[in-house]
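[job 4471] stage=fold_predict status=RUNNING
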Amino acid sequence: MSEKFTVGLIQMSCSLDPNENLARAESRVREAAGRGAQIICLQELFRSQYFCREENAELFALAEPIPGPSTEAFSKLARELKVVIVAPLFERRAAGLYHNTAAVIDADGSLVGLYRKMHIPDDPLYYEKFYFTPGDLGFPNFDTRYGRIGVLVCWDQWYPEGARLSSLRGANILFYPTAIGWHPCEKKQQGARQLDAWRTIQRSHAIANGIFVAAVNRVGFEGPPDNGLEFWGSSFFADPFGQLLAEASASHEETLVVECDPRQMEEVRRNWPFLRDRRIDAYSPILERWLE
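[job 4471] inference complete, writing structure tokens
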């Protein structure tokens, strides 16, 4: 049985200056580590404002290689503080080839591996297909000093398949770094329902898989007043029964720190043995796009 581990989620706003955002993130990592966090996760694309609100080829300049400046900075910080850092970045893999990527850095400063966002949305103010190539690494797990973790990114959180595959590989917790918010014209009528659906779908992954889930979102308004996004924060931890252990506000920067005990996974899975009762012999049709 794995040992207990303590997780930190960093919910912050972002400026137009990538270096300022990196410095702010480093400060928040220090804060989380000072409060006992061992595995610390930042929000999606934390080094910039959410540039996918528009299709603009000049914004590819925000991308960086991995290894690169951000992973080098966090490797030093992880080694100093003896913490694991999940750093979601705009990855420049090659000329004309970019990914929405999360780099996992172990407590000794080594780069454990990458997760490249698999599901890429294309909606008003979320024009990600213009920027990102779909991930090609599948749904890996990462063995770190403090536990085995799974990482998925934002739009992935709506798909039970990714959560299940990551869970079946033995992760103790699923991280969902995120950038999601309200359109100005939708918040009044749809806002509460959208936020509730976002929270509910991820809690359902915790329940269906008997696993801890941690979602970390950004806050603040980005873009023009009449056509920008108000990011709704509300970062949270859910236990393997889907209960919320901690939740941040919808409007303020916060750092959440929560202890996770893998023994709770054992208890929940014994009493709700969803993994035991799966009919793996009957699921092959799920590989089809649509069933007539």
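[job 4471] summary: Residues 285 and 291 are 8 Å apart (CA to CA).
[job 4471] exit 0
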